[in-house]
Design a protein that fits this description.
about 95% helix, rod-shaped, YvrJ family protein, transmembrane helix, YvrJ
Length: about 50
Protein backbone atom coordinates (compact mmCIF):
# COMPACT_ATOMS: atom_id res chain seq x y z
CA UNK A 1 0.00 0.00 0.00
CA UNK A 2 2.73 2.49 0.96
CA UNK A 3 4.62 1.85 -2.28
CA UNK A 4 1.46 2.54 -4.30
CA UNK A 5 0.90 5.84 -2.49
CA UNK A 6 4.50 6.93 -3.05
CA UNK A 7 4.28 6.01 -6.72
CA UNK A 8 1.05 7.97 -7.12
CA UNK A 9 2.53 11.02 -5.37
CA UNK A 10 5.62 11.00 -7.54
CA UNK A 11 3.54 10.52 -10.70
CA UNK A 12 1.18 13.37 -9.85
CA UNK A 13 3.74 15.59 -8.13
CA UNK A 14 6.00 16.10 -11.12
CA UNK A 15 3.26 17.41 -13.44
CA UNK A 16 2.03 19.74 -10.70
CA UNK A 17 5.51 21.17 -10.19
CA UNK A 18 6.03 21.65 -13.92
CA UNK A 19 2.62 23.30 -14.28
CA UNK A 20 3.33 25.69 -11.42
CA UNK A 21 6.69 26.61 -12.94
CA UNK A 22 5.20 27.26 -16.37
CA UNK A 23 2.32 29.31 -14.97
CA UNK A 24 4.75 31.42 -12.97
CA UNK A 25 6.88 32.12 -16.03
CA UNK A 26 3.78 32.83 -18.12
CA UNK A 27 2.55 35.33 -15.52
CA UNK A 28 5.87 37.21 -15.63
CA UNK A 29 5.68 37.31 -19.42
CA UNK A 30 2.12 38.63 -19.28
CA UNK A 31 3.15 41.32 -16.77
CA UNK A 32 5.91 42.51 -19.11
CA UNK A 33 3.53 42.41 -22.07
CA UNK A 34 0.97 44.51 -20.17
CA UNK A 35 3.61 47.10 -19.28
CA UNK A 36 4.81 47.36 -22.87
CA UNK A 37 1.26 47.59 -24.16
CA UNK A 38 0.59 50.45 -21.73
CA UNK A 39 3.70 52.27 -22.97
CA UNK A 40 2.56 51.80 -26.57
CA UNK A 41 -0.89 53.22 -25.78
CA UNK A 42 0.68 56.27 -24.10
CA UNK A 43 2.97 56.85 -27.09
CA UNK A 44 0.08 56.57 -29.53
CA UNK A 45 -1.99 58.99 -27.46
CA UNK A 46 0.93 61.42 -27.33
CA UNK A 47 1.33 61.34 -31.11
CA UNK A 48 -2.38 61.44 -31.89
Amino acid sequence: MEQTVLTAISAVGFPIVVTFYLLTRFQRSMDRFTEQLGELVKELQRRG
